[in-house]
Structures are given as C-alpha cells and as structure tokens.
TrEMBL record:
PANTHER family membership: TRANSCRIPTIONAL REGULATOR, MARR, TRANSCRIPTIONAL REPRESSOR OF EMRAB OPERON
Phylogenetic placement of the source organism: Bacteria, Pseudomonadati, Pseudomonadota, Betaproteobacteria, Burkholderiales
Protein name as catalogued: MarR family winged helix-turn-helix transcriptional regulator
Entry annotated with the keyword DNA-binding: yes
Organism, as annotated: Ralstonia soli
Taxonomic superkingdom: Bacteria
InterPro entries: ArsR-like_HTH, HTH_MarR-typ, WH-like_DNA-bd_sf, WH_DNA-bd_sf
The keyword Transcription is assigned to this record: yes
Keywords, in A-Z order: DNA-binding, Transcription, Transcription regulation
Positions of the HTH marR-type domain: 8-140
Amino acid sequence: MKPMQAHGMPVGFLLAQTAKTTARAFDAALQERGGSLPMWLILKALMQGGHGTQAELAATVGVQGPTLTHHLNGMEKDGLLIRSPLPDNRRVHQVALTDAGRALFFKLRQAAMAYDARLRDGIDEADLDVFRAVLQRMSANVGDAQEDQPAR
C-alpha cells in the first residue's frame, strides 16, 4: 500500500500536525529569549489590559485556573508580576505586571515578530489572506459543533 501524499491527507490531521510543529518552534523561539508560550500568553494578556483578576486572565489565556496558578506562581517568584487580594474579597486576586514583566514582554514580542516573519517567509500577502479566511471558516465549522457538545 502506498503512503498517502499530503494532498490526500485529511485536512484536520494536517492542521493538527502543523499546529503542533509550529507551537513547538514558537515555544523554542521564546525560550531562546528567556520565556515560554504560556508565559508569553500571560504577559500579552496583561499588557493588553482588562484582565484584573486571575479568573479573567485564565479565561483570556484559555487555561484552567490551577494551570494558570502554576504559571503565575513561577512568574511572581521571578519578579515578573504581583498578585494582590481585592480589598472587598480576599479570595480574588488582582494580577499586575512589574517593570521586569513589561521588559520581558517587549523582549518576547521581538522574538514573536521574528518567528512570525520566519513562518511567513516565501508566502505572499494574498495567499496569507486566503489562508486566514480558510482558518477562520474551519474554526467556525467546528466551533458550532463544540458548543453543541454536552459538558464533560
């Protein structure tokens, strides 16, 4: 039996494999600058603002609370952010970047921009526009199905 050629592979499989490969490469690019993908997502969300509490931040970053807490613990220990309880509810913590956290954000942003340029190398803007539209359509196609699934 002949191995399947790329054009015969299911699109979802190719997309999943590409996502894994590009995520690993992006994480490696961030690690070269002293960060990681989860750290980048947290720093980026905090720089964009509107995520005062850990729960809001977890929803924005797309991780469960305990996973976010693990990352925040390390980032706080490294002096990148501070967490402080809200005065009216001491169980809810507000998260804010320190100067060191903002500096790391800008350092990692340079790595992210260089990575994006590398990823897009040799692909013209018209093809990228079509690619973005196809990805958005695929996401919409399965997004509706995910919303219809019962919670586990």
